[in-house]
Every structure is written in C-alpha cells, then in structure tokens.
Amino acid sequence: MSEDAGLGRAALVGFVPTLDKAAARAFYEDVLGLRLVVDTPFALVFDANGTTVRVTPVPALTPHPFTTLGWEVTDMTSSVRGLASRGVVFERFENMGIEQDADAIWHTPDGATVAWFKDPDGNLLSVSAHPAS
C-alpha cells in the first residue's frame, strides 16, 4: 500500500454529539480546558493538544454505554482531582466487578489506571495513564 493510501499520517478528528451547544461549549472549554477554535452552527471545534474534537449538534441522542473520548495523562490522581475541583463527577462501576479507589480510579491488572466521567449530554469520557512499555 502506498503512503498516500493509508491514514497513519493523517490528522485524527474526534466527533462528539450534543443536544445543547452552550452547555457543551462551557464544559469542553471551561471545565476540560480545551481551546475553542471555532463555533459554527454545525459544530464547536476544539483543539485537544493538536487533535481536533468536533462537538456536533444533533436532534436526538442516546449516549453509548462505552467511552466516547479519552485522554492519556501522566499524573492520574492530580488529573482526576483537578477535574473534580472543577465540578466533574467521576463514575463508579460497582456492577462490573472492578474496584475503584477513593478517587474513582480503576487500577488495571497490567498497571494502567482509568477513571470515567460524563459530559453534559451523558457521553462517557475517560482519563487514563499507562505504564511505560
């Protein structure tokens, strides 16, 4: 396959649906700290450390029960506590057989850590940290 045929070097764009653009803008910009690039009738476009995230208005939404977007962080506890101080509520999954610590962080068997939270539309988001390989 030629270099031009694959997407390995193309920039990734993430898409997230929203029913309420104003609430989504406040959350992604003010709470999560993403830089707003442009606000159009069709999407809020954010820069997430070089990755484009388009928050797109939709007429109806049933959030998925799995992670829609996630961020890899270097200091999990500081990231979770920093987001919590800005009003983010972390999810607990007691019925899934995973144990989460006092900050709602799951420590995986391979040494990774994950914590989940929802945006104003109920989209499940996460922060995670992975051991060096």
Question: What is the gyration radius calculated from CA atoms?
Answer: 16 Å
**Mean of pLDDT:** 94
| Gap between N and C termini | 29 Å
Number of domains: 1
Strand order of the largest sheet: 1-4-3-2
Helix content: 10-25%
The CATH architecture term is Roll
Largest sheet: 4 strands, mixed
Which shape, going by the Cα principal axes? globular
CATH homology-level superfamily: 2,3-Dihydroxybiphenyl 1,2-Dioxygenase, domain 1
Q: Would you tell me the structural class of the helices and strands?
A: alpha/beta
Count of discrete alpha- or pi-helical segments spanning 4 or more residues: 2
Q: In total, how many beta strands?
A: 8
Q: Please name the CATH topology.
A: 2,3-Dihydroxybiphenyl 1,2-Dioxygenase, domain 1
Low-confidence stretches: none
